[in-house]
Design a protein that fits this description.
The chain has 7 helices and 3 strands; from the N terminus they run H-H-H-E-H-H-E-E-H-H. It has about 180 residues and is mainly alpha-helical.
Length: about 180
């Protein structure tokens, strides 16, 4: 997947433009490129983490615990920060507890809350993997100067804002338009 895929995609977009004049070619292309970048990035990161029994989601959760002031976090806060469902956070926490990377205990001040805490084994794992991950991130972004990276960050913030605003106005799935080909 790479330049050949995107070239073929662009060729199909050109045909689409002939069939549907005025379609948003650039926006469709940028959206698809963003998806392809995410997919390739995720594959590289997961490949880099695989020798440690990690994937990007578990790694990100460990990083958030490591960077928390007391190296603990509530599952609901972790869910929000890493943009993952609470159900998935429960599954991740189970996995990390089983591997000895975190502990889970009740909160003394609010018995309804659970606290996830990074263990010494979890700290050691993060500190072992961190240099390898930083090297990968630097390699991914080589060729971009500081100004380029600042601009990309600004563009990503704008895109995230647009997506969040659109998502906030989505109708419930029960109110979604019916497929014109489904006979309704």
């Amino acid at each position: 997947m790479g330049n050949d895929c995107i070239l073929q995609f662009q060729q199909r977009l050109d045909i689409m433009g002939q069939r549907f004049p005025g379609h948003p070619r650039k926006e469709v292309l940028l959206s698809r490129m963003q998806f392809m970048i995410y997919k390739k990035f995720n594959e590289l990161v997961n490949h880099n983490l695989h020798p440690y029994g990690l994937n990007d989601t578990v790694w990100t959760a460990l990083m958030m615990l490591y960077s928390s002031p007391e190296r603990f976090i509530y599952p609901s806060d972790l869910s929000h920060i890493i943009v993952s469902s609470r159900t998935n956070i429960t599954r991740l926490a189970d996995e990390m507890v089983e591997k000895g990377w975190i502990s889970r205990q009740g909160c003394e001040s609010d018995r309804r809350k659970i606290i996830l805490t990074l263990t010494p084994a979890g700290i050691a794992l993060v500190e072992k993997v961190m240099p390898r991950q930083w090297t990968l991130y630097e390699a991914i972004w080589q060729g971009f100067n500081a100004e380029d990276k600042d601009h990309i960050e600004q563009v990503f913030h704008t895109l995230l804002g647009n997506l969040s605003a659109l998502q906030a106005h989505l109708p419930p799935l029960s109110e979604a338009p019916q497929d014109p080909g489904d006979g309704h």
